Amino acid sequence: MKNRWNAAEASALGDDLLAQRVYSSQLLGQDPELVLHGGGNTSVKITEQSFFGDEEEILYVKGSGWDLGTIAKEGFAPIRMEVLMQLAALESLSDADMVTQMRAGMTNPAAPTGSIEAILHAVLPFTFVDHTHANAILAVTNHDRGEARVKEIYGSRVLIVPYIMPGFVLARHVFEQIQGQDFFGIEGMVLLNHGIFSFGQTAQESYDRMIALVGEAEDFMKQGCSAFSFPTGEPKDLDLVKLAQLRHDVSEAAEQAMIARLDASAEAAGFALRPDVGDIAQRGPVTPDHVLRTKRVPLVFENGDLDGAVDAYAGHYQNYFQRFATPDLQMLDQAPRWAVWLGNGTVSFGRNVRSADVVGDIVKTTRETIQWGEELGGWSPLTESALFDIEYWDLEQAKLKKAPAPRPLEGKVALITGAAAGIGRACLQALYDAGAAVVGVDLNPEIEELQDDDRLGVICNLTDDDATRGVVDETVKRFGGLDILVSNAGIFTAGAHVEKLEPENWDKSMAVNLTSHVRLLHHCVPYLRHGIDPTAIYIGSRNVHAPGAGAASYSCAKAGLTQLVRVAALELAPEGIRVNIVHPDAVFDTKLWTPEVLARSAERYGITVEEYKKRNLMKTEIKSADVGNMVAAMAGPIFGKTTGAQVPVDGGNDRVI
Questions:
Q1: CA 175 to chain CA mean position, Å
Q2: What CATH number does residue 21 fall under?
Q3: Model confidence band, residue 399 (pLDDT cutoffs 50, 70, 90)
């Protein structure tokens, strides 16, 4: 543990207790050894004047849905202490009533709903209270001798609470336990199999205690496992087609497209190479909070037994549900949220890149913590029934129901070529806006501007077969598979009549506008075969149906590309892969069409630039975004039963019609 309290930064906050609460909360939330992605909670008790001028004590507690690492003042729910203490004194209280009464006791109805641990924070007689799910605490306490270990580490300096369902039941237990308790010398409270609380009269005192207490648990681990280091290794059989198949099967079980994030790092591979990994990984999560993100256990598989592995996992999950469910509960999807790929690493799943990465962070913590716990003498998490109660807890189910509806292409993976500008960039943006994770490919170095978690730009010469294969493999390795191919890369070669056509002109057009597309599809098909509603969409040209004199090299290549689409549609339909082509015309918002070029072209026809842009039957301007939107529509369910189609985006061309 590293204490990151900065006296100068804290001093600048003055006497503003809520600002101090925000500051120390962020310090806790930004340390993955303490909390991850919405975990943990903090509070501060402040005496304020009510609207009517009366003094009242308010508990500002972390609001539901806020992350400690980035929380702001508005992320804390202000609840009257009087209300919380009255609730704590009740013999029983339903979850629904608890939430209702807490909201009724808030001084600001627009604030977020307070943490389910709000009553527990209220009953602890300290101004500042911090709660984390520190890895070291979990490694020490997730064992039959967990309580004995806590006493060995801290003596009487912490209260010890057995695992109890979070919420009112836990708060009530602690409320009863601390009646008459002398808190002199008490620095915190350890919840077995759950986490740790620290408290103090100042933000720094509570924070310092948290860091010190967790640090002592780390020292205990290191002393007990002085010779231990995390095993490392290299993936032994990393077959990316198997990864795509895994993602497909998980998506089928989840009934929605899922991103699969592979971790084949030395640490992940070392974990997956452990001879006992199938045992220790499937005992349960390190803290019950994680079950909401990861389910109770991961899928464990190796290449040879992947067929049917996800179905078997789903069957075990059904059995788990049936053993503990009450008649009023509806089963969640049966798909795993992470997997141990024996000998290779771990894989995390989510309906988008962010949710998969959240799971991935938890998986990393899980790998480390359970290995420490096993080295300390055995890893023993909560029982199945206790974890089921958390996974199907009304309050947590309510959070899931409030999640926004997925975007049309959420969880899909798209590869777009010629994506640095113009039509290719518009296609990439339209697919991204619809929820897809995207990989853009181009010769133009500007493509490397795309470096987000869910967007990747790669420089590639698609006439280089090895480089093309590498780009496709990198896409699958990054997101788990491939669902959408937009084959757009192309060049417009210089115009020349056939008699004067240079061989280099013809050869270059064929290499870029036709052959590179064939090779790209060749490398994509093994992955599209395992895609979710997979499709390949090509960008053709009006010239296919209405060529002009002097454009033989370009028009013939695009005509060949159209024929490729027709043949591929015939070949790939049995695999469930749709193949279609879009024929744009007169798309002028690209770098090719400078104002000077547009002006010269319009002058040649004796019309204005604006008239030239709308030189079609509908008298409308065609923009790159129009083509991008058509491609995004063709990638989705609207075109789910269409293959081999040629779709014009040209405003109506009389020569084509």
A1: 38
A2: 3.40.225.10
A3: low
